[in-house]
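Write out this protein's structure.
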Amino acid sequence: MDIKHVQAGIADIKASASMGDYEAAHALEDRLYVHVLLSIANGKCKDPAKLASAALKSRELDFPRWCA
């Protein structure tokens, strides 16, 4: 995984949120975080801090995040 994958994931989250599908957007965000963490844990990224920082940019998207 690299920054481009993270940016694509954030674009998908933004698209879901803009269509009003907040549940899907939240699920995509959670999935992105898991993929980033797995990539870091498995040693499959060159700059873990940079990758994590890029993923956390999804928090800047303004949509409701509900948990059941």
